[in-house]
Amino acid sequence: MSVLVDHGWIPDGTRLMYRPNAVEERAIGEWLSQDPSSYLATWTNHPRHPLVWAVDHQAYSPSALLRRIWDEAQWDEALSAVQGARSWVVPGEGKLADLASALQPSTGNGGAA
């Protein structure tokens, strides 16, 4: 996420949405739907903790916030590997991971410049 912060790509205060994958949706979708704010975070250009969760107003990295949501939902079978940047979306722009990779120089493997 540091590349997004370094470039100031996402303005402070931008609303992000958690977009659970199919496995997550089946496991915690009901819990998420009980409080629609659990899907929401606000971007801050903090290099380590850019997401402020709408539920508790605390700052997290994308992966740490994903783990926090899974913990709060009491998903005991949650995956051990977390890729939070693939789960948080800037509406109309895309996933954090995709936005970050678009800003990184090509590695010669067909990546975006």
Summarize the structure in words.
With 113 residues, the protein is an alpha+beta fold. It has one domain (2-100). Helix content is 34%, strand content 16%. It is built from 4 helices and 6 strands. It has helices at 2-7, 22-34, 62-72, 96-103, and strands at residues 15-18, 40-43, 51-53, 59-60, 88-90, 94-95. The chain has a 6-stranded antiparallel β-sheet with strand order 4-3-2-1-5-6. A hairpin with a 7-residue loop joins strand 2 (40-43) and strand 3 (51-53). The chain is globular. 20% of the residues are buried.
Q: Considering DSSP H and I runs of 4 or more, what fraction of the residues is helical?
A: 25-40%
Helix and strand sequence: HEHEEEHEEH
| Sequence of strands across the biggest β-sheet | 4-3-2-1-5-6
Mean pLDDT: 89
H/I helix tally? 4
Distance between the termini: 16 Å
Ranges where pLDDT stays below 50 over 5 or more residues in a row are 107-113
Q: What is the molecular shape?
A: globular
Specify the structural class. alpha+beta
Q: What is the tally of beta strands?
A: 6
Portion in beta strands: 15-25%
How is the biggest beta sheet arranged? Answer: 6 strands, antiparallel
Q: What value does the Rg take, in angstroms?
A: 14 Å
Q: How many domains in all?
A: 1
